[in-house]
Design a protein that fits this description.
The complex is a heterodimer. Chain A is an all-alpha fold. Helix content of chain A is about 75%, strand content about 0%. By secondary structure, chain B is an alpha/beta fold. In chain B, about 40% of the residues lie in helices and about 25% in strands. Classes of the chains: A mainly alpha, B alpha/beta.
Chain lengths: ~260, ~250
């Protein structure tokens, strides 16, 4: 019974700190996933710009150079651990410019660009997964690449990559704990403080364990719900009438007029 | 019909790597004309159509639209908006319902206001007999219904010419009729149409002109009567015999 009494004692003493840490963890995950997603979308759009033989040479070269830089960014961040990235960026800035970054802001920055590198590939995969005919159809009615992406391709790509984006979100909730190495006071960091102060490691880490699980599990459910909503209803109303047709199949081969 | 041509194709060539698919294509499409392109698979019919709509960039030659060469102009979006395309695989926008499919181009490309765009979309959807289904999503429709919506989508842009790339080839036989019926009524309404098709009966009945392609060139170009009843080339004869047998 000593275990539970330690748990409650730690909660009593460090409860508000743990709550704050949980808040920071959620903040890191949400901001990281959102900004990372935005980075991924921009890179995805850029990487799929059609380059024709009629494109002027300087533009082509410029495109290639920037494309190379983006690939370098993606490979660099996918091929090193976020923990190391955090150290290198945080202490690198201090070393090079003599500036000590705000730890939370540094943490948000690192998790965002790290996620962005993964998202770029996820988005690219999503765009590729959309039937080529969709892009051809947008072209045939005179849409520009940006219009085609915004109104037709990305909405479909985003639907297709929702499971992968959700995965990334969950990974961010858990992996934000590595940012404790630069002193971001997220859930793992505050738990470690509580453990260090009480020397009760098991109870002190049992608490964040439960919190992490609850966070991830509820987010999974929310994402599932969102996916279902994105799919829209399986039924539709016939124009000019009220009743809902259940199971579109009943109308599928129906003769019109 | 002897008006000036809407689209003029001059010395058009297209190669994919070493393979030359189109070798020096020349022909005009006049306003209000219905031209069917026939020929066996691999003769370059679809590639020609895709070149005209700039889905493929021609290797050489010129495409004149109302007299100006669009291959040398920087902005081709306006041209694409005015020369519509109906695809073999329909290519309806899967994330939009039927009405939105016919509205999005008008609003985003032609900068039409939404209310007018919806009115126009409904008018064309009614013309193809799909008005009832404006709330449906593409996945809830049959092939023939999808293709009719695709035609309405192209019409809603009020194009100067409409290109059809084997519009009935992906359809179940019993749905071919409903799409051909719509196309026939369009032809009769005076729309300029360029149709790649394997439907010989349709080509014979509604075309003003028929273009027979073989091996990347236009072998014969004439009225339905000339092509079907008095073909000049052996290859045309052979093709027609095979096609009519089916």
């Amino acid at each position: 019974m000593e275990f539970w009494s330690w748990v409650s004692r730690i909660l009593e003493q460090y409860g508000s700190l743990i709550l704050e840490g949980t808040g920071i963890t959620v903040l890191l995950a949400i901001v990281g996933t959102a900004i990372g997603f935005a980075i991924g979308l921009l890179i995805g759009i850029y990487k799929t710009i059609p380059i024709k033989s009629s494109t002027p040479m300087p533009l082509k070269i410029l495109y290639k150079i920037f494309n190379f830089l983006l690939s370098a960014y993606i490979e660099l961040f996918r091929s090193t651990p976020m923990m190391v990235q955090a150290m290198v960026i945080f202490y690198g800035v201090a070393y090079a410019f003599g500036i000590t970054l705000n730890r939370l802001i540094a943490g948000l920055f690192i998790i965002s660009i790290n996620t962005g590198a993964y998202m770029a590939e996820i988005v690219r995969g999503g765009i590729i997964s959309v039937d080529k005919g969709q892009a051809e159809a947008t072209h045939s009615i005179g849409m520009t690449h940006l219009q085609s992406m915004s109104y037709i391709i990305l909405p479909q790509a985003i639907r297709n990559i929702m499971p992968a984006v959700g995965n990334q979100f969950i990974i961010n909730i858990k992996d934000s704990c590595v940012l404790s190495v630069i002193g971001v006071s997220e859930l793992f960091f505050v738990s470690k403080s509580a453990a260090g102060a009480t020397f009760q490691f098991f109870p002190a880490f049992f608490i964040p364990c439960v919190i992490y699980f609850v966070l991830c599990f509820s987010i999974t459910q929310i994402l599932r719900y969102l996916e279902r909503r994105m799919d829209g209803a399986d039924t539709y109303t016939i124009y000019g009438t009220e009743p809902v047709i259940n199971g579109a199949d009943t109308l599928k081969r129906g003769d019109v007029k | 019909m002897d008006q000036k041509p809407v689209i003029q194709i001059q010395n058009l060539k297209k190669s994919f790597g070493q393979r030359e698919v189109l070798k020096d294509i020349n022909f005009d499409v006049h306003k209000g004309e219905v031209v069917c392109i026939i020929g066996s698979s691999g003769s370059g019919k679809s590639t020609l159509l895709r070149c005209i709509n700039l889905l493929e960039t021609p290797t050489a030659g010129a495409i004149l639209y109302n007299g100006s060469n669009i291959l040398s102009s920087g902005n081709t979006h306006k041209y694409c908006a005015k020369v519509g395309m109906v695809f073999q695989q329909f290519n309806l926008f899967n994330n939009l319902n039927v009405l939105e499919n016919c509205v999005v181009g008008q609003v985003k490309v032609l900068k039409q206001n939404r209310k007018e765009a919806e009115e126009r979309a409904k008018r064309y959807l009614e013309q193809v007999g799909m008005l009832q289904f404006i709330n449906a999503r593409p996945r809830q429709l049959s092939g023939g219904q999808k293709q009719r919506v695709a035609i309405a989508r192209a019409l809603a842009m009020e194009p100067d010419a409409l290109l059809f790339d084997e519009p009935t080839s992906a359809l179940d036989p019993e749905m071919v009729g409903e799409v051909l019926k719509v196309m026939k009524s369009l032809a009769e309404s005076g729309l300029t149409m360029l149709v790649v098709t394997h439907e010989m009966g349709f080509a014979r009945d509604i075309s003003d002109r028929i273009v027979f392609m073989d091996g990347g060139i236009i072998l014969e170009d004439g009225t339905p009567d000339e092509i079907f009843n008095h073909p000049k080339h052996e290859r045309t004869k052979a093709f027609l015999t095979r096609a009519m047998d089916k």
